[in-house]
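Notebook p. 47: complex prediction with 1-deoxynojirimycin.
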Amino acid sequence: MMNILKNLPKRERNLMTDPLWYRTAVFYEVMVRAFHDSDGDGIGDLRGLIKRLDYLAWLGVDALWLPPIYPSPLRDGGYDVADYRAIDPRYGTMADFEELIAEVHKRGMRITIDLVMNHSSDQHPWFQASRTDPDGPYGDYYVWSDTDQKWANARIIFTDHETSNWAWDSVREQFYWHRFYHHQPDLNFENPKVQQEMMDIARFWLEKGIDGFRLDAVPYLFEDDSNGGENDPRTHEYLRRFRAMVDAEFPGRVLLAEANQPPEEAAAYFGTEEEPECHLCFHFPVMPRIFYSIKAQDATKLREILHATPVPPAKGQWSTFLRNHDELTLEMVTDQERRQMFEWYAPHPQMKANVGIRRRLAPLLDNSRHAMELAHALILSLPGTPCLYYGDEIGMGDNVWLPDRDGVRTPMQWTPDRNAGFSRADPGALNLPVVQSLLHHYNGVNVESSLMQPTSLLFWLRRFLTSRAQHPAFADGGYADVPSSESSVFSFLRTHPEESVLVAMNFSTNQCSTLLDLPDFAGRTVKTIVSNTPFQDVGDDGKLRLTFGPHSFYWLVIAHD
Ligand code: NOJ
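Predicted complex, structure tokens below:
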């Protein structure tokens, strides 16, 4: 396996010199504890990730996003932080982390980590001090109350596990506020010391050389009655100050907002050009509509949400994604859409979690190669910085029998060998079992096998990532909807001064044909992007006829000369 990786061609792109690197980058979410275990204890670690960087560079990944690697009781996958300034020893040491940063940068790639601002673990010393010593220095670090009736209109996020956003603390004899698990008390951002702590924690990691943060659960920093505890103006005001600090002290580093909100509210996390907040915001409004449109075989919902989505300020950019380490959240779709999506995508109760679906991309799309290509081509060509999820590049499956969201966090499948090449440990000692389902068994679904097969999804994705990097219209181009007579066909232009890219996709499982109207491009030459071969030119009447197979799509480049 390692020999195969050694022979892979070297990466040509270097994002280290580009201050706007996050606009052209493709991100990859990699869970350290699930990627590669270098010391055989059954848990993935930082040195394991270092060993696999050549694979990621070969694939065409430009930037990594590491979910929390801080010491944690791991009752919420590490989003329950017990110490913000250390590395959990199960993943390695601070020296390993520093080496990881250097190795990532050496390959011309970037590295970002999660910053869990909103809450800590109840095991964090701040919380322990806060509950035992209300008048002490940490007494006001969390959101305490004598009543659990305040902010009653704030929704419950972890509906499978929690019935209230308040929990009783028998030591302090008060309630504390928690938007997530009861063991994750919210930090009190009204306390200036907490605001300062988070800035200093950010500085601590930025000084180590990381390239930015994914800001976890960012809409919930400040609570207020008027807005269900979300998107409070004081949260935005704090983020503006946070960004100003990053720009002044660490130019070129980026903030990526996790704000699962409707379009206008999500877009507010960009701030404005004059007063920016985050460089990137995950495109939560569009993600569930991709899945909806594919199963509905109709692009209408996707067109509608893109139409309703504000264009980010000049340097801001959406981040498109299909899956991540959480459930496929359905909080932001209508009741009718949610019912429909549960019916389509979660036929078994085990597949649901909270208000969402805890499955990976390949099983969601019935393991259809065409549908997986279509979905990937979509997030790679819509405006935005794509973020891939580890394992989806080989069509990894999930394990819906594991609790919570663990089913989509199983070990990366590298080879058909013991523990899928993830670890040398006794199989029983693995952090989570490797996937052994009939369809997705690691015997067949793994990187080594994918590398043996030039037609694999892995090679397909690499080719598309390479092509994407060669056409600046994908990263920087404008977006214009191109209407189609077929409701199953979704087509749009990415316009750029040098060339325009035409994307057209058939969401139907049937063949179809459509005539696109491209009046500005009458008579222009058209080429296919990935193979760079001539296609039919746009007619002198500005029309282009396209014929599609089931779930097929076109990536075409229209010359401007
Ligand atoms: C969002 C994270 O993605 C999720 O995994 C976590 O459970 C919540 N935030 C709470 O931190």
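Notes: Residues 76-77, 79, 116, 180, 216-217, 258, 325-326 surround 1-deoxynojirimycin (CB under 6 Å). The CA atoms of residues 131 and 171 lie 6 Å apart.
Next step: compare against the earlier run before touching the bench.
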